[in-house]
Amino acid sequence: MVDDMTKDRVLELIAAYGAEPGGWPDDERESARVLLSAESDAFAAALEDARALDQMLAREEMPAPSPELAEKILANAPATKPERAGLFGGLSALLFPQGVRWPAGAALASLVMGLVGGYAYASTGIGYDQADSAYFSAFGLDSGADWVSLE
Amino acid sequence: MSGINESDQIARAAGGDRAAQAALVNRNMPIVFRVAYRMLQDRAEAEDVTQETFLRAWKALPDWQPRAKFSTWACTVALNLCRDRLRKKKPVLMDELPERVDSALRPEEALASQQGLQDIAKKIAALPERQREALTLCALEGMSNIEAAATMEVGVRALESLLARARRSLRASLNTELAEG
Questions:
Q1: A8 — contact with chain B (CB < 8 Å)?
Q2: Other residues' Cβ atoms within 10 Å of the Cβ of residue B37
Q3: Do B144 and A25 touch (CB under 8 A)?
Q4: Structural contact between residues B77 and B33, judged by C-beta atoms closer than 8 angstroms
Q5: How much is the ipTM here?
Q6: pTM for the whole thing?
Q7: Which of residues 64-103 of B touch A (CB under 8 A)?
Q8: Which of A9, A64, B67, B86 has an alpha carbon within 20 to 30 A of B5's alpha carbon?
Q9: Where are the alpha helices (H) located in chain A, listed in sequence order?
């Protein structure tokens, strides 16, 4: 809403946008309407002229575009990114429904874990013999001597 | 917009979604064609411009920034293409031509004349280029003043001036013809 709406400005709006307030700028419409209804005689002639021209413009004839135009436009539209095709594509989709990035990521994670684990193990200072002992215990054998006896 | 906003629709269209592309074309092709037709007064040329506008749109969609409505962007492109074509046809700067002097007959009298009605399209076509653009976007396509000014890449005051001059020229042109007839 504009506080300083004037008669001249309302006449400018009519001259530029026509007689229908719906076509006037949003921020001036209500102020102009108030002035218009308060002093309707002052704007009657301008409104009459503008309304007649509005009606003529509304009756302007316009040819329709050919029915093929939309098809031609869509024929040039970008296509969907092509699906991975062929035997590899089929297998890949079957084995890795989330995409091939997942197994690649898993392989990388395994590598990192192995490196970190190996480094941590080495940094504990556990010697070869202790490691062997733990290994034998995991198989229910007391020591490396049992391996000798098995041989 | 029915259920889906324009940015989403544009993103889907850019990704190759045929339904989104068709919706974008169905929604915006008519206004682009009408604007081009009013500027060029030739259906085949208007269709060429419409097609070229959408070709540019397909290229622009992947990097689309929602600074303006798609229709505003498309009409700006279409108007520029029309200006290029008009410039090649007619090197005279139409906006520099003088406006016709108003005559005694009023538009409502012209309205009563069948000839006046038939000629309204010709009268619009005869308007100076920038006035025709302003009238097309605001009075005939119902764009807001801000949207039309953005489409034409002019200020709102300049748009208003063009509109007022267009309406004054039309009125004078119709009245003069009736007076002569």
A1: no
A2: 24
A3: yes
A4: no
A5: 0.80
A6: 0.69
A7: none
A8: A64
A9: 7-17, 26-38, 40-58, 69-75, 86-95, 101-123, 128-138, 144-150
